[in-house]
Amino acid sequence: MNKDLFALPAILGQVAAKLPSYPPSRAFAKVLNLALGRIIRREHLEPLHGKLIIIKVTDMGLRFHFTIDDKGFASTRSDAMPDLAISAMARDFYLLASRKEDPDTLFFSRRLLVEGNTELGLVAKNALDALELPRLNPEKLLPRHFLGKLKARIFH
Predict the structure, then answer these.
(1) How far is CA 125 from the centre of its chain?
(2) N or C: at which end does the chain have fewer Cβ atoms within 10 angstroms?
(3) What are the residue ranges spanned by the domains of the chain?
(4) Residue 151: what are its φ and ψ, rounded to 5°?
(5) 5-17 pLDDT, tens per residue?
(6) Are strands 53-57 and 84-88 parallel, antiparallel or unpaired?
């Protein structure tokens, strides 16, 4: 895969890095709950319960601060030292989500950085590996796909 396919302009990351992290963190936690809330087994995440986790999208300047509580993923406003920090570029997170790359390959090629309690990172990796997720198809995120489904529901 062409590594430059998802290269973002540096100015975008510089601007986003100056924005507060809580609104994107809140949205990120909501997305995690919608995407994983019903399919991830709670016992797989038990060691992460109450831990501060930060996902850093380095080229976009985004930081998502969250924890796991009794209700699922929850955003946090904490600037404390995270228990686990996972950093990568947007394209690498995309490759992980679409299962075109595995975390070990990205980790050993130094494109995925795990800081803090790396044992917690292994717990997170194993929990995600245990999921039977469908492959992410970017075409399904395009407006024409949603409009096509809506049209089919209305006229059929």
Answers:
(1) 12
(2) C
(3) 3-155
(4) -60, -45
(5) 566 777 877 777 7
(6) parallel
